[in-house]
Design goal:
396 residues; alpha+beta; 23 strands; 31% strand; single chain
Amino acid sequence: MWRSWLVLPALALGLVTFGLRPPSADPACCYFAAKDKDILQPAQKAFITWDPAEKVETFTVQPKFEGNASDFGMVIPTPSRPSVHEMPRDFFKELAVFTILEPMDLSKYKQLTFAKSAAARGAGGGVPTKKLAVKVLESGVVGSLEYKILEAKRADDLYQWLKDNKYSYAGDESALDFYVKQNWYFTVMKIDPMQMKKKADGSYTGEVTPTRFTFASEKLIYPLKITQLSVKDKTEALLYVQAPHKVDLTGDFSYEFSWVSMWSKATGFAVREKLTKEETAWQQHVQPKVNDYFQKVNALRQKRQEPTTLEWAKKITESDVAILEGKKPYNRDAPKEDVEKLKMLKGHVKQGQFVTKLRKVFTKAEMDHDLEFVRARVDGQDDDIEYFSILPTSPP
């Protein structure tokens, strides 16, 4: 993926201080556990949608793995029985292209010297020896993956079922019990590493078909805890969340600590008359928090924790849909063939919904619970500020 940047040279040191950095390439997401813990998950990505009225959530994941296991399986927990569907192979690539920041609105900011730079982007089973409290509710194929949806009443039975049916699983029963006690369902898939790229050292690396899970849920949640099993030290999560409003993570995982600082500093370079009424009001609201949030980012870094960063946020308009349909020009820097493939996002990225793109590097210790998304707020007030154009303080 290609991104053009306009960055104030004078702000380069400030960006490092704020703890903001460019996105890393080719992140991925899924939840798998491997025999002898020799399959690792260095990163993950997901496209999550939420309908609060119907209490329906979907998430699309595309597994990426690296390691030397001869076979392994994925275990994906959901709070209710899901429906499973294949998604286009390049879905996440096109989502990344669509959410490239637009060129900076130079008319909005004071006439300073800008430096232009470009950053290249990459874009079956055995028979159990005893009757287990595990029920196979559904079997099928999605893309090249065979899947089964399971209902389990006991973690030890589920653990044994995975073993008996040759779903190599490195975790202990407690990891499964976390979800069994909440009456979650489990989708299991087998991966054949022989279909992936083999490296010189004999290990494998690759991605499989993106898969979408749709299920009923009382809240917008993302099952992170089970991923802890396949992470060595840390994992990077790139999350796109589509909902009726801008969303954020809870507690110390909030992106507001870094976002408020970056956005507030950017408005200092704006021509006052060019700020909207909403932007002016929001600046007045968040200004008292800037120093506190700056200190919060530093405190997180001192604990060797990376603050969450907001990378793109926009309420999807009719004009955005027209870009996906090829009816309006695309105004960012990306290969022509990728822009032409934006059509695959039609029907998935929906007009009137807010898409929030955020990134967080989780240490293994931070992955002891699932992620919960909430309405983006600062001090009780809703945060509806969009971020789809480069700011003077955007990371290079």
